Amino acid sequence: MRILVTGGAGYIGSITAQRLLDAGHEVVVVDSLIRGHREAVDPRATFVEAEVGDTAALGRALPGCDAVMHLAGLIEVAESQSQPGLYFDANVAQPARMLEAMVACGVRAIVFSSTAAVYGEPSSVPIPEEAPTHPVNVYGATKLMFERLLDWYGAAHGVRSIRLRYFNVAGALPDGSLGEAHDPETHIIPRLLKALAAGDTRFEVFGDDYPTPDGTCVRDYIHVSDLAKAHRLALERLGRGGEGGVFNLGNERGFSNLEVVKVCAEVAGTEVEVVHAPRRAGDPAVLVASSAKARRELEWAPAHADLREIVTDAWRWHSR
């Protein structure tokens, strides 16, 4: 299959594109490089520097493609709360133009990189796909809005879609060649490991008054390699004519921020001084996946479920 991968110069996009190429697919990467990295794009891929909403560029890149894998977008919860217009443009308005370009070019299959943030504060955990969607931050709201657009484009134009709602992604390729390099960095594992690699052992944890065992947020962590594999399996399901739908992706186990700090410190071989800071706006207390549907229908299972392994791979990347 020939796949157009948006955001293919980013963290998840570059690793997913590499895995698609390894599996024998052709890849066209579209990335604005505003937050992506040109050096992260696999040389086997065709690269197009463009915004997702650039319909002229998409009109040149899409012909001959069998599907789109949409990973481009903005992802920082706190930033979304302070700059909602920026997020609605990047995560809804521009991708809507991409959908129009897809329809115009006859491409009617898409795998969408969604998020567990669409659920908001869940009423129970682990969270199944049928759980109510009540996002508590702008980031989650924009991702859910694009999911709704996919419903309408399915009804109006026959666009088939799989939406992958994944939880906290971390880790790096085991050889340390590709990893997480956001600027600014707000995710706890890379934020802490980046600090430790620079010799800074004082670390801020946001919120210590959540209704959790130690008062800090609890999250389900998934290795980026496992996530990339799920994207490939979803794509191939659509390629075989399989049904679309929503799939949660996670390890079905939650770790608190303090537990994450402890594992990171052990892997890095150092002590960490935790400084408690106020909560960040829009952070739910607990997000843990039920991935039973993905295991059953995509035949997907995480191969790197251990938090220490996830952190060890990430540390290898950051310490380089």
CATH class of the largest domain: Alpha Beta
Amino- and carboxy-terminal Cα gap? 35 Å
Q: What is the chain-wise order of helices and strands? A: EHEEHEHHEHEEHEEHEEHEEHH
The gross shape turns out to be: globular
How many domains in all? Answer: 2
The percentage of residues in β strands lies in 15-25%
Secondary-structure-derived class: alpha/beta
Helical element count? 10
Mean pLDDT: 95
Topology overview:
Elements: E1 2-6, H1 11-22, E2 26-31, E3 46-49, H2 55-61, E4 67-70, H3 77-82, H4 84-104, E5 109-115, H5 138-157, E6 160-166, E7 168-170, H6 188-197, E8 202-206, E9 218-223, H7 224-239, E10 245-249, E11 254-256, H8 257-268, E12 273-277, E13 286-287, H9 292-298, H10 307-319
Helix pairs in contact: 1-7, 4-5, 6-8, 6-10, 8-10
List keywords for this structure.
320 residues; alpha/beta; Rossmann fold; UDP-galactose 4-epimerase, domain 1; seven-stranded parallel β-sheet
Describe the structure.
The chain has helices at 11-22, 55-61, 77-82, 84-104, 138-157, 188-197, 224-239, 257-268, 292-298, 307-319; strands at residues 2-6, 26-31, 46-49, 67-70, 109-115, 160-166, 168-170, 202-206, 218-223, 245-249, 254-256, 273-277, 286-287. By secondary structure, it is an alpha/beta fold. The strands form three sheets. Strands 3-2-1-4-5-6-10 form a seven-stranded parallel sheet, with helices on both faces. Strands 7, 9, 11 and 13 form a four-stranded mixed sheet that branches. It has a two-stranded parallel ribbon with strand order 8-12.
